[in-house]
Amino acid sequence: MTLLDLVALLPLIILTAAATGIVLLMAVCRCHRTTALFSMAGLGLAVISLPFANSMAPNRAVTPLLMLDTYSFFYMGVMFVSSFVIAALAYAYFEKQDGRREEFYVLLLTATLGAAFLSASSHFVSLFMGLETLSISLYAMVAYTRDRRDSVEAAFKYLVLAAASAAFMVFGMALVYAEAGTMEFAKIAAARGALEQGNHLVLLAGCAMMVVGIGFKLALVPFHLWTPDVYEGAPAPVTAFVATVSKGGMFALLLRYFVLIDVHQYPSLMFLFTAIAVLSMFFGNLLALLQDNIKRILAYSSIANLGYVMIAFLASGHMAVPAGALYIAAYFITTLGAMGVISVMSTKERDADSFADYRGLFWRAPWIAAVFTAMLLSLAGIPLTAGFIGKFYVLAAGEESSRWIGIAALVVSSSIGLYYYLRIVLTMCESAEDEAPVSRPSWTEATVLTGLAAALLFVGVYPGPLIHAAETLVASIL
Amino acid sequence: MEYFFLLLFTGLAAVLVGAGLLTSYLVAPHRPNPLKNSPYECGEPTIGQSWVQFNVGYYLFGLLFLVFDVEAAFLYPWAVVFRQVGLTGLIEMGLFLLVLIVGLVYAWRKGALEWV
Amino acid sequence: MQNAMSMILVAATGPWAAKTVAERASESLDTSLWAVAAYMVLALLAVVVLVTLLGLVLIYAERKIAGRFQCRVGPMRVGPHGLLQTVADTFKLLLKEDIIPTRADQAMHLLAPFLCMGATVLIIAVLPYSPTMQILDLNIGVLFVTAVSGFGVMGILLGGWSSNNKWSLIGAMRSGAQIISYEISATLALLVVVLFAGTMSLRGIVESQEAGWWIWRAHGVGLISFIVYLIASTAEINRTPFDIPEGESELTAGFHAEYSGLRFSFFFLSEFINMFIVSALAATLFLGGWMPFHIGGWTTFNNVMGLIPPSLWFAGKNLFVIFVIMWFRWTFPRLRVDQLMRLEWKILLPIGFANLMAASLVVLSNFYFFPGK
Fold this sequence. Notes:
The complex is a heterotrimer of chains A (about 475), B (about 120) and C (about 375). Chain A is mainly α and about 475 residues long. Chain A has a domain at about 265-478. Chain A has helices at about 5-30, 30-55, 70-95, 105-120, 125-140, 150-180, 185-190, 190-195, 200-220, 225-235, 235-245, 245-260, 265-290, 295-315, 315-345, 355-360, 360-365, 365-380, 385-400, 405-430, 445-460, 465-475; strands at about 60, 65-70. In chain A, helix 2 (about 30-55) packs antiparallel against helix 3 (about 70-95) and helix 18 packs parallel to helix 21 (about 445-460). With about 120 residues, chain B is mostly helical. Chain B has one domain (about 1-110): Up-down Bundle (Methane Monooxygenase Hydroxylase, Chain G, domain 1). Chain B is about 70% helix and about 0% strand. Chain B has helices at about 1-25, 55-80, 80-110. Chain C is mainly alpha-helical and about 375 residues long. The radius of gyration of chain C is 22 Å and the shape is globular. Chains in contact: A-B, B-C. Chains B and C meet through helix 1, helix 2 and helix 3 of B and helix 2, helix 3, helix 5, helix 6 and helix 7 of C.
């Protein structure tokens, strides 16, 4: 372990230190504000350290376990910023609640750490470590409002299903290892030639089992069954985390793996993932039509969104990487914004997840309603929003690699999706004289929502810098 | 060879206890009756099963034990090669222990170490 | 066969070079399979004899010492000075009816004593009694001993739970909580010696103390960890002052309340053998095991000390620690469960961590008053 290795690890080290520091802080003094500020400071420092680490120790493999290249730093940055936003939202959200609130930030930081680990993983061992660090923290986070029945129920569902999918994943790893003789992604990719002569069956079975684990984390059809319940039961900031950071790490890993093994070589895998993508888009959008709960709608919408981005996966490497990065950035901003609105609207007793909570919101709290509308339009992919840029780039990537089935599915299912997004917007426009006025959002919430809306519009109107950043990632991974 | 001997002794342990039980089975009287075979509660009739949910305090300590025992399992190989890894090893293990000790301090302050 | 006999003779009277029975057996693997078989029989016999003898001697010693502490004479009737009392007790237990309560989990109820006894026999096999008297030496010796002694806890928990008796369950849970808690401190204390010796093999640890026992050669940290280990291991074998799992006055007999006859005696015996094991470990790791009292550099002194055979050194140290543990029983009152947990988690554990860190600094400095090899 040289000094440069430590520099490359700096973002992860800062995050670990911050998590440990909070535990110690809680032992000394319990203060919600201090804890929240401390965790945000830790995340902020980690973000600041990213460009430093990137320039001092570029594209460095620290032990066979981690590959700390620009690609992983980009995803870490996106995830750290999201966690920062979630920490701010959570502070406002938990201020309304009673009980012990400080532990949440430890879990948030460890979960973020796990996701960051995933994004830099280049080995099965670090993949599993990251996955478990993320998952175990998430179980507790989902159940954090433990006096709410839904919350505990959601946590149990998540625990059981996540454990089962992790078991699948580990068994798949074992099979791949048995066939390839190595657990490093790069070496598995390199061993491909030798593998092609032999019997593929064990390798394919291993890959398929790993797909179960990955699909679970990304909530892709047919591994999506937990999604609506967990989204509905978890407290709103945790839902935001499940929807964004928790998926981001696995997404980065999967994309890295796909590019490394050059997925075009395997028609069976291509077919499998095309099927998963198309199914996710249609299932997500069609089932969202049937829901009467905003959180569940967003759950199905996120299933569909991950389906869209799978199209980018199937494109060739030099388009897939920037398209994926752009889409993830846009999706994070949008989802955080939407979940942020729900979090702001929530009261001590329950989260604001029914249509009734939003009836006539344009007249009661025009600013929040405007932000929510912007987020929903971005999820639908309307121009001038970040979501449009993301979707456009994914389409371009798919078009270049001639993934026509995927593109057709994307276009059709997005137009279905438009319906339920507009349904929420229309509900907000309805007149509602009898509704109680919305309590004024705290300045934290106002800042976060304004910031996210600004970012959404900025990326939507002037995507140049982000596209440029996303395109530089290709060099580091290929 | 060492492990073969170990296997031998595992067998021996089973045989030793088994033989003892067999002898006792052969020579000891065996006259069960319902009262004799009922649970012993100092003469009081037993109420209900004793397979019940137990004081949660035990599980709390069980969890703590798990953390520190796994940590001890990590410490053993470190202690063996400590002379080779030297100061670097000390710092690395020190950081590892620090995280755990912070956890202990937290549990302490949270009152997890109080017996209830 | 003759070959085997002569080899065993050499083994008994041979030179000082430390060699285990298993090693001898594997050496003669090529020449004579008879010799291998002979070594195996020898090893098995030795352990059986040792277990029996330990049971007789320790139980007798406990009662006599208890008597002396209370100004009584202890057992006197059976045999001269009551020497055969334990033998008589064994026969009595053998002839007692073996009861399995109707509501108990039969299979588990039967299995529990096997676990308790099995753990002790396995550990006895790896202890070094003298350079030539060790049946097998594992390179993970210390880890093996701590791991296998975990079987004992399972036996206790299983026995208490399967009896379907409230006293048993309470006793078993208390015992489990106590053993697992104190196991951490015991492990940390043993780690200090592993750190100094740089090996986990028990023979290697004994040999590393040629220039002095770790209890005094390690600048105090050895002494601290010896004391911590003594306290923690007394708790691990459920002896007074840590005997709330049995606590006759409150739980009748704790986890073995529903055991009778020979299966009760297995629990009883395994407790005494466990006492021997923890004393033997304390003697091996901290007091030099079979290593005579050596002071690094004082060659003449060391040679004089070397005149006493190593097995006597081991026995002496071992009996001393056993006596101390028995002494505890008549000196300290029983602890309450909250005091018990406080002692471990708030006192012993922090001391153990601090001591381990101090020990690693000492090892790093590589400074000793009496130079070793």
